[in-house]
Amino acid sequence: MIIAIRAFIVLCWSAALASALPATAQQAERPSTILISIDGMRPDYLDRGLTPNLNALKAKGVAAAMRPSFPTKTFPNHYTIVTGMRPDRSGIVGNSMIDPRRPGQIFSMGDSKQALDPFWWNESEPVWITAEKAGVRSATMFWPGSEVASGDAAAGPTLRPRDWMRFDQNISNEQRVNTVLDWMRRPADIRPQLITMYFDTVDTAGHRFGPGRTPELDAAIADVDARIGELVAGLAAMGREANIVITADHGMAQTAEDRIIQLDDLIDSASYIAVEMGPYGAIEPVTGTDTRVYDALLKPHDHMQCYRKEDLPARLHYGKNPRVAAIICLAAPGWTILSGPPRYPVTGGAHGYDNADPDMLALFMAFGPSIKPVADLPVFDNVDVYPLVARLAGFDPLPSDGNAKTLAGIVGR
Ligand code: AMP
Ligand code: ZN
Ligand code: ZN
């Protein structure tokens, strides 16, 4: 009887202890989750014989072609991957955007005053914030949106990943890997359980030289492969397990100077704001221009189709957000929409096309102790990555556009 009472007390005591332990300590046994983005990495880049590390990891886990969301640009798709919301709902509707509540202002990635203003990012909650709220320690080795405080400072406390960095292209890929390895080397109570990491060099080479076989793009692909090899080897050397999810935000298509649609030939540029130009155009008529801009753009054109935002094809899931410009024009594959002279050489590579364009497909890979090898994963939408990441990192995802079932079959063991 005494033994039974004592056993009962021990049982209650250990149960109480477990619930008193901080969530991070309870999480300590779980392998960390590392979410990587290789900007502009097409799935077919793995077939060039340049990626021995990624190809070996593919054999141990999963590799697939993933459909990006429209518009197939960097900021919208990175935020979609970490929120599970398509750009229309995540609030990051373009690399550049306007908002009727901020007349006269334009958000653009290069304008840090705008790009770091929480106003633009607060329409949805990124995975590192939901993680922190769930007691899962997060760290970001770059990711669009990760440098921005979440929440409204005037209304209450704001949150950030526990470790984060201001984006700086001069931090080499090697330094990025070393930073993540340093984080992973930490003792369990201060080790991040969810890490993001970002490589921009493949996208940069793809823009300059196009997606075809060039020494420059091939070198960029091979370098990122080598860095990921070092990351995996570094983790193994310190005996740390991690589930690694590799994504890309979009693909890359060949563009050329003889495939330009010049808006100056259709309408005077003073009558609209060119919010975004290139593979797609986001065009906001200036007040007082009546129907002139609509009349000029909505009629049929060679190599370009323009829509009022409310009339965009439903499959694009785009146009309800007040931040989407009134007219959206889609260029035919490989064509470039310009307003006036180009600001960068047009011949090379670009993305931003219809997300059904096969050139816009993005790489997805996953491997690690919780991932089952699956040979043939069909193409899926990038919104479905978010519930996978939350599950691997051990907390409930917020409601989103993503479907947890899509990638449920790759989790196991
Ligand atoms: P894109 O113009 O759509 O090709 O965007 C790719 C570029 O986005 C990269 O070359 C980076 O310079 C830039 N970029 C990526 N992450 C960030 C960030 N967190 N803050 C500012 N710029 C970024
Ligand atoms: Zn990108
Ligand atoms: Zn790019």
Description:
There is one protein chain. The protein has 413 residues and is α/β, with parallel strands linked by helices. It folds into two domains: 25-254 and 355-410, Alkaline Phosphatase, subunit A, CATH 3.40.720; 260-347, Gyrase A, domain 2. Helices cover 30% and strands 18% of the residues. It is built from 13 helices and 18 strands. The chain has helices spanning 2-20, 23-27, 52-60, 74-83, 87-90, 112-115, 118-121, 127-133, 173-185, 201-209, 215-237, 292-298, 385-393, and strands spanning 32-38, 62-67, 96-97, 107-108, 138-141, 163-164, 194-199, 242-247, 253-255, 260-262, 272-276, 280-285, 304-308, 327-331, 336-338, 348-350, 362-367, 380-381. An eight-stranded mixed sheet has the order 6-5-7-1-8-17-2-18, sandwiched between helices. Helix 9 (173-185) packs parallel to helix 11 and helix 10 (201-209) packs antiparallel against helix 11 (215-237). The model is unreliable at 1-25 (pLDDT under 50). It binds adenosine monophosphate and zinc ion (2 copies). The site of adenosine monophosphate (AMP) has 13 residues, from helix 10. The site of one zinc ion (ZN) has 5 residues, from helix 10.
Please describe the structure with a list of short key phrases separated by commas or semicolons.
413 residues; alpha/beta; Alkaline Phosphatase, subunit A; Gyrase A, domain 2; eight-stranded mixed sheet; four-stranded antiparallel sheet; 13 helices; binds adenosine monophosphate; binds zinc ion
